[in-house]
Each structure stands twice: as structure tokens, then as C-alpha cells.
Give the backbone structure.
Amino acid sequence: MEVLLYLIPIALFLGLAGLAAFMWSLKSGQFDDMEGNASRILFEEDMPSPAPKPNDHSKDENKD
């Protein structure tokens, strides 16, 4: 029974440490986008997209 005097505070400390780690992970944004990273690995986006030509925007303005 004397071992409970040691185990109960250790269990409470580990529980509070786990809760503190969970709260820290929530505030750091680790759970913001759960599916984005998992699906982003499936797409190949190694090639940069072509930059828009500066003349394309001026053509749209002339149509109006």
C-alpha cells in the first residue's frame, strides 16, 4: 500500500504532462490541416506553374 503514495503523484504528473503537451500542440497549429499534408504528397507539384504574362491583364481591361 505504501507504493500507492509514490504511484499516484507520478500518475498525476504524467497525466498533466500529457495534457500540457496536447495543449501545446493545439496552440502550435499541428491539428489545423489534418488531410492537407496526407493528400499533398499524392500530387506532383515539382514543376513551377508558368507566371502570367503582364500583357494578358491589359487585354482583359481593353475588352471592357
